[in-house]
Amino acid sequence: MQDVEPASKTSAIPDISNVRLDGVDSIIRQAIMDGNIPGAVLVVGHEGKIIYRKAYGERALEPRHEPMTLDTVFDVASLTKVIATTTAVMQLFEQGKVRMNDPVAKYVAEFAQNGKDDITVRQLMTHYSGLAPDLDLTVPWDGKQTAYKLAFVMPPEQTPGSTFVYSDINFIMLGALVERVSSDTLDVYTTKSIFAPLKMLHTRFVPPSAWRPKIAPTQYDDNQHMLRGVVHDPTARRMGGVAGHAGLFSTGDDLAKFAQALLDGGDGILSGVTVAKMTQPQQPPTAPVLRGFGWDIDSPFSSNRGDLFPVGSFGHTGFTGTSIWIDPTTNAYVILLTNSVHPRGKGNAIGLRTKVATEVAASLHLTPSEKDEMRAKSVTGYNEAFTAMRRMSTRNGIVKNGIDVLEEHGFDVLKAGTGKKHIGVVTNQTGVDGSGKRTIDVLAQVPGVSLDAIFSPEHGVTGTVDTTDINNSKDAATGVPVYSVYGATDAARHPPAEVLRSLDAIVFDIQDAGARFYTYETTLGYFLESAANAGIEMIVLDRPNPITGSFVQGPPSDSGRESFTNYWTVPVRHGMTMGELANMFNAERGINAKLTVVAMDGWQRGDWFDSTGLEWVNPSPNLRSMIEAALYPGVALIEGTNVSVGRGTDTPFELVGAPWIKSKELAAYLNGRGIMGVRFMPVTFTPTSSNHNGLACQGVNIILTDRNGFDPPELGVELAAALHKLYPSDFKIEKMQALLVNQRVYDALLAGQDPRRIAQDWRDELGKFGKLREKYLIYK
């Protein structure tokens, strides 16, 4: 066993004599003594410098012993995927030659066979294509073009987009894509566009024979020949050594140049924006396995990365015993190269990677500060929903609604100013305080305040009316006039101007459902407008978003198509409370009402309603449980069509059916789609109201299996796509436009595009909305 320190100091290899990592040395030496690896090269970088660079043990044990040296060339195996192929694809993406949400068949036409016509570049890059892990090696074949042909005809084993399956075929096809788009072979392209610009002079596919003495051998092949300078991966070997998934050879120093280039914002091979995009979550939003484009961002090194390596770090491993980990947050990287498979494939570097990365982070005090965490967010731009889903758990919270906070503060907001204040209240059955007392009754008894008007939204002040025919009335308990602001015309949905002129303020206290098309949100917007026009104050008593404030999902509505179910261009599931929406509507729509939001106390963004300690009150007649509230933003997308969504049954929004549906057929198709968080059971039911009233309907019962791993609007698109595919002459898909309000999504459905591809296409719009939304969040 031999440690080799740097033989000389150059500008490329800074002075590292003042850094000691004795703990790391001990860990690697122990792995050698245990027979897990013959030797290793470790390179550690921090703050723009190589701070540790060392060789350990032996490069070869058979057929003769050779000491490990710092310039040893390793078969880096699957590091090929990220160093070569991912970088090449991202360069083509940056040049506008490749789009991630395009089907692969757009660039490689032969790929569109056997159910693969809608598999996207994104799905290959994140291992959500549904393709098998590898090509069939049980039959003889040879050559790169043969490998491509085998991949072209291979059907997916899983529904594309539904399941994470680490697949070499994904990157074999990405290598083919690079070759088609660039008109260069993968080895020529990567040398010209990546390795040469970074002066990675000892990195290439199919290394020349002159490199052989410095190459770390791997293991004996089937003919008992030691693989040295010949790729270890059998598929890449059959392909001639040049493949998108394996085949690259490199040194620790060259990989350090690559890692530093990414930390430096791409250093000419990629832009900083592209590096950030590549290394942030890009898998389906509710998927539990986090993947960037190519890169593993759910640490390949440590199961407890959350304590040591913050969100924003990324890495990859190789089967031969290689690994690279990069953390923009602490501006550090760890490169560990071994040939653990030498000489007979019995070694294992998996545990070693974890120990080395953990020890490096601890020894160099790389635990991030709060400032570092903020930088991580700016570097990666990761979506709140990805991390929120992973940290949320059911809690027993104690939340006080806005009305309770108002009471605790002696109604100070209402009593501000001089003289008696005349107010109106917009509320319904959900407007109750913590003791169960109606907001109406609470406000009617406030000294110095006169409650002069009550305004009732859709379903009336009691929340039980399921018709547009709601008349004005008088509240029996207080004698205060009740004005309906729900009717068949736009005028009937606005408060009477003459009533507002007699008031000093409007108080708004209604429980929302968290979906764009729930009309209480539009009622909120209309009262903001009316309050601004009347020159009176608007006071919103906030309540929880019952389906959490952490998830932002579904297509934003098209601008210029405002209606009573689409007040503004927000996504189907916006993840905001009424108070936050009021702030956003008031500013972004230029309403400029005098607005005060009385915030809740104790609410957390990840809270589902059943975590708040509050009592559930049906916000409308057909939202009777948390399950129905969770399903509503998805199932309701198709309720305007000619299907029943369970209205007139005991479980509205848990059912979808029609007389012309075949229940077993629809359930089997939807279950085959592998939609995250839900399962489907065939069912027959007879609704007593709404669509197909009194008719026996076959359909599905939607079983919610994981509400945090579930995307309701995507479910709505899946349902529409399934019905359009299976029952094209019966299903009236055009009727869903009123609630969908997104022409691109509707056109894609008509064209028969895969729903997962459709959903990926609205992610950029969601990202833009997320940045805007951030300005108006009250609860962080």
Key attributes of the depicted protein:
single chain; 780 residues; alpha/beta; six-stranded antiparallel beta sheet; 19 strands
Protein architecture, described:
- The protein is of the alpha/beta class and 780 residues long.
- Helix content is 31%, strand content 13%.
- It has 26 helices and 19 strands.
- It has a 7-stranded mixed beta sheet.
- β14 (505-509), α18 (519-534) and β15 (537-541) form a beta-alpha-beta unit.
- α1 packs antiparallel against α11 and α22 packs across α25.
- The longest helix is centred in the N-terminal third of the chain and has 16 residues, at 79-94.
- The protein is elongated and about 100 Å long.
- It starts with 21 loop residues before the first helix and ends in a 6-residue tail after the last helix.
